[in-house]
Specification:
The complex is a heterodimer. By secondary structure, chain A is mainly α. Chain A is built from 14 helices and no strands. Chain A folds into two domains: about 70 residues, no CATH class; about 230 residues, MetI-like (MetI-like fold). In chain A, about 75% of the residues lie in helices and about 0% in strands. Chain A is globular, with a radius of gyration of 24 Å. By secondary structure, chain B is an alpha/beta fold. Chain B folds into four domains: about 150 residues, P-loop containing nucleotide triphosphate hydrolases (Rossmann fold, 3-Layer(aba) Sandwich); about 60 residues, no CATH class; about 80 residues, no CATH class; about 325 residues, 3-Layer(aba) Sandwich (Rossmann fold). In chain B, the strands form four sheets. An eight-stranded mixed β-sheet of chain B has the order 6-7-8-3-9-10-12-11, sandwiched between helices. Chain B has an eight-stranded mixed β-sheet with strand order 18-19-20-15-21-22-24-23, sandwiched between helices. The chains are: A mainly alpha, B alpha/beta. Chains A and B meet through helix 9, helix 10 and helix 14 of A and helix 2 and helix 4 of B.
């Protein structure tokens, strides 16, 4: 089990390393650099040269990568091109805000998805299932910005219950984000629930048709006991990985939602940094998102391993 | 104990028909007018091939139908209760309690996330009056009753931590928890090794005698039925076609299908090929107005096409669904004549020299330092010569390394040591990607399961075209012609060319797999359990096909099977493997007769013949060993005839009789 854990951690680290290489190379290949962005029209001649000298941009790329990577490992993501601020400071609140939005969506979405998925599976092909499944497919096919716009139209414009955009500043205390956070949260919950629900539904249906569920029936086990004791512990295992993928998706999907709602999170900061050609910030955010992606998937694999006796005993008793 | 056989039936099935609604809205029956009764203390066998409805019938006795099925007519009673009118609550009280099921595949029928002990105490909670506190003691007692070693440890394990035989025993213990009056057994030993199967059947016989339970034993295996049952019902296409005492049904069955089925079973004492039963049963709803068996019946007349025979009692006391039961005697129940002997040249085609294979991968550090892994190899010391046109049978229980050897010869696994030599090509490179195309062409492999070895998206023509293009560069009309010839040679017509594997039956798919192997015009064909997934009647047809092909092309076979009777029917020579090491090798007749290696003796003793008067001998404990011992005889831990410490420390010598029959044992040949 411990060996397995170390192996997975090492693999995760290698993935993040490769991603950092790709990000750095990508930024390197793009025409222009932080200095041309910062100086704009004055970016020529001695001024440009001085700036590059100052930021160390005229050193070889490998050297700069190593410096950046070493900094990133110790938590120093460098300095932003606009305003020359510590990126770690800039990113801190933004990351918090994005995590706040994502966790609100998860807290609402995951229990809802599990519940609806199980209900749809147990009443398969009945009215409940058809309704749930149809709405889920709708939720998955409508792009987030469309559903976001619709929600703004209904709740802000027509009903006037919640403000349509978030005006709270990035470093405000958490409590000030309510109730503005509800609309972006609803959009994310909507899509996320649909994805998880569909996996849960099919895996519960499969488990209900399994030999062990049939055996439990023929052993005289009451229906609800079969569901809760024999079927769900097995059927929900595959859900763990889908939840992880969905969380990872949340962090990416949040870019669009944050832009639509003017939410001061990591995603909007990324968009802003790209349009400002603030390459150090873009690099840093891409790296953070990649690390979270890897981390969440790792956590899901470990959780599956702990929850599944097959995997657990395999690694404990034989490995 | 209860009275042995009383008059009032415990289970009574009356005129039961079960079916489903087909695409066109018609009702398609899978069970038609079943009438039978099981008395207390009695053991009834339900025999038939896949699709005959035997499992559906057994589950219907519990008032259970698979999704989509429904009762069309009649019903089934248990102890006077109409099972299909009971409420869910009432059914829950009976199922697993007074009427318990032992499922076919316990590995999948035990809930993977619950420990064995928890699953047993659940049964106790539901069906016994025992106070909660005594459950764990009773669980251990139940596990002991089914002769599981170390029952309290087993109770704390998850199902996947048990071997197949142990899982089956645990399932039996779970069924016994409710102290049932009747047990339904749905193929309880299918998929288990012969020795494990024999042990489980003895256990069931003892339990039935001890408790006076009634049993309904569903199986396609007439050998198992012969050992356990008093009475047998033969099922065909959803009908009971023959019912009678086990002796009557197995010795001189009065129904043509039952006779064909009996003739298609290879027998340990018979070196001849079994007789194939050509054709296949009609799909549900396609049986027509006449007898369901009419298209495959040798004595059918016009009346058989127009009217469905009723179940009628014949003089012997059996009940038969046949218009011509009086003429069934004329049909043989075993192969009529010996086949012509084949000539095998003394000219080696394949020679394996001290072959060893190891599944243990060297660790990272070992690779850097160039060390070999310390574990003993999975397969070791295999030296075998195979002549042109000869068939070598490889037998042994699961885990004996039979398939591993085939994979190494085919180049799918790298050997850890030794050589694989093909006449004319010298020593073969270890893996497929380092072998030349003509070397690959000469050795072909046929897999156990054609569902997995045939690409489901390719038509039969595309599947067969691949080797023809690859090895012979055929194209256009020549290619087409060759594919047609191949299909003809495996007795499938040219009209199969455009079909997909999913449109074929199991037997037809395996014929395509055989055709694909022979497309390469190989010198050596490796057959890995090629008939294990097939029904007996289909198996007989595939064996016959393999025999025809080797006769016409002088191809050598290495034939791997866990079924000793099948190996006997096809092989010239047989090698017995235990834990990846050879125990005995020689001409088939010599291996199947005394003197034998103790392991061969154990294997042969456990084989069940379709004859109620043969009794299996169980001489070795039913244990699963995970790895071979490091020194001495591989069979040392289970051997019933172990003579002393030399078995543990010294590799036993080969003892040859001078005619190619060699046994590897410390006991002198004369004493074996």
């Amino acid at each position: 089990m411990l060996r397995m854990l170390i192996r997975r951690l090492a693999l995760g680290a290698i993935t993040v390393f490769l991603v950092s290489l790709i990000i750095f190379a990508g930024v390197e290949i793009l025409p222009g650099d932080a200095c041309t962005a910062f100086l704009e029209r004055e970016a020529q001649g001695q001024l440009l040269e001085n700036c590059r000298q100052e930021l160390g941009l005229n050193r070889p790329a490998t050297e700069r990568y190593l410096e950046w990577a070493a900094g990133a490992v110790t938590g120093d993501l460098g300095v932003s091109a606009n305003g020359q601020k510590q990126i770690t400071e800039l990113v801190g609140y933004r990351l918090r805000n994005t995590l706040l939005l994502a966790s609100c969506a998860m807290l609402a979405g995951i229990p809802l998805a599990l519940f609806l998925g199980v209900v749809a599976a147990l009443w398969r092909d009945r009215m409940v299932d058809l309704t749930i499944s149809t709405i889920a497919i709708g939720a998955m096919t409508i792009p987030e910005f469309v559903s976001a716009t619709l929600l703004i139209l209904i709740f802000s414009v027509w009903l006037g219950w919640i403000p349509g955009i978030v005006l709270t500043s990035a470093n405000a205390p958490i409590s000030e984000f309510f109730p503005e956070i509800f609309l972006p949260m609803m959009v994310l919950t909507f899509v996320m629930t649909a994805h998880i629900l569909r996996t849960v539904r099919s895996s519960v249906i499969e488990a209900m048709a399994s030999d062990y569920a049939q055996m439990a029936t023929l052993k005289g086990v009451p229906y609800w006991r079969i569901v809760f004791r024999h079927v769900l512990p097995n059927a929900l295992l595959p859900a763990i990985n889908v939840v992880a993928l969905t969380i990872a998706w949340l962090l990416g999907g949040v870019v669009v939602i944050e832009t639509v709602f003017n939410y001061p999170g990591l995603g909007r900061m990324m968009i802003d940094s790209i349009s400002d050609r603030d390459l150090p910030v873009t690099q840093a955010i891409a790296l953070i998102i990649a690390s979270v992606y890897v981390g969440v998937n790792l956590a899901a694999d470990l959780l599956t391993m702990i929850a599944n006796p097959r995997l657990r005993t395999l690694h404990m008793r034989k490995g | 104990m209860k009275d042995m056989v009383t008059k009032e039936p415990l289970i009574q099935v009356r005129d039961l028909s079960v079916g489903f609604t087909g695409r066109a809205g018609h009702t398609l029956p899978v069970l038609r007018n079943i009438d039978l009764a099981v008395r207390r203390g009695e053991s009834l066998g339900l025999v038939g091939e896949s699709g005959s409805g035997k499992s559906t019938l057994a589950l219907a006795m519990m008032g259970y139908l698979k999704r989509g099925l429904r009762v069309i007519g009649g019903g089934t009673h248990f102890a006077g209760l109409d099972m299909f009118t009971l409420s869910r609550k009432e059914l829950e009280g009976i199922r697993g309690g007074r009427l318990a099921l032992i499922p076919q595949n316990s590995g999948q029928s035990l809930t993977p996330t619950l420990k064995i002990g928890a699953q047993l105490s659940e049964a106790l909670r539901l069906h016994s009056k025992l106070p909660e506190a005594e459950h764990s003691a009773r669980v251990v007692q139940l596990l002991e009753q089914v002769r599981l070693p170390d029952p309290s440890a087993i109770a704390g394990r998850y199902p996947h931590e048990l071997s197949g035989g142990q899982q089956q025993r645990a399932a039996i213990a779970m069924a016994l928890a409710g102290e049932p009056e009747a047990l339904l057994l749905d193929e309880p030993t299918t998929g288990l090794d012969v020795t494990t199967q024999a042990h489980i059947l003895e256990l069931l016989r003892d339990l039935a005698a001890e408790t006076g339970m009634a049993m309904v034993y569903v199986s396609h295996d007439l050998g198992a039925i012969a050992r356990v049952c008093d009475r047998v019902v033969v099922m065909y296409a959803g009908e009971a076609v023959l019912e009678g005492p086990v002796r009557e049904v197995l010795r001189n069955p009065a129904h043509p299908y039952a006779r064909g089925l009996l003739a298609s079973i290879p027998k340990l004492t018979d070196a001849r090929l079994p007789m194939a039963l050509e054709g296949r049963p009609p799909p549900p709803g396609k049986a027509g107005d006449g007898c369901a068996f009419v298209d495959r019946c040798a004595i059918a007349t016009d009346v058989c096409r127009t009217s469905r025979p009723a179940l009628a009692t014949v003089p012997s006391g059996a009940r038969v669904r046949c218009h011509h039961a009086d003429r069934a005697d004329s049909l043989p129940t075993r192969s009529p004549a010996d086949a012509d002997p084949r000539v095998i040249a003394e000219d080696a085609i394949l020679s394996l020299g001290d072959l060893s294979i190891s599944y243990a991968r060297p660790g990272f550090l070992d690779q850097i330092l160039g060390r070999k892994p310390a574990t003993t190899p999975t397969v070791d010391g295999i030296t075998i010569e195979l002549e042109k046109g000869e068939t070598l049978g490889l037998v042994g229980e699961s885990g004996s390394g039979k398939s591993t050897i085939l994979k190494a010869v085919a180049g799918l696994l790298p050997p850890a040591g030794g050589r694989i030599e093909l006449a004319g090509d010298g020593v073969l490179p270890p893996l497929v990607d380092t072998r030349r195309p003509d070397q690959l062409r000469r050795v072909q492999l046929i897999f156990q399961n054609p569902d997995e070895s045939l690409n489901p998206r390719q038509t039969i023509a595309e599947i067969l075209a691949q080797p023809l293009k690859l090895y012979f560069g055929l194209s256009g009309e020549a290619l087409r012609q060759r594919i047609e010839d191949l299909l003809e040679s495996v007795r499938l017509g040219a009209h199969y060319m455009d079909r997909l594997p999913s449109q074929l039956s199991g037997g037809e798919k395996q014929r395509v797999a055989v055709a694909r192997a022979f497309a390469a015009e190989p010198d050596l064909v490796l057959c890995d359990e090629v008939t294990s997934a097939l029904d007996v009647s289909v198996q007989a047809a595939v064996l016959d096909l393999l025999d025809q092909l080797r006769r016409s092309r002088n191809t050598a076979y290495v034939f791997v099977s866990h079924d000793l009777a099948v190996v006997r029917a096809l092989s010239d020579r047989v090698a017995v493997l235990y834990q990846g090491r050879l125990c005995e090798i020689g001409p088939a007749a010599a291996v199947y007769a005394a003197p034998s290696h103790p392991y061969t003796e154990v294997l042969l003793g456990a084989v069940l013949e379709p004859d109620p008067d043969t009794v299996p001998t169980l001489s070795a404990a039913d244990i699963v060993e995970l790895s071979p011992p490091a020194r001495g005889c591989p069979f040392q831990r289970r051997c019933p005839r172990k003579i002393g410490p030399q078995c543990d420390t010294e590799t036993p010598p080969w003892q040859d009789d001078g005619h190619g029959h060699a046994i590897r044992c410390h006991i002198p040949r004369e004493a074996l």
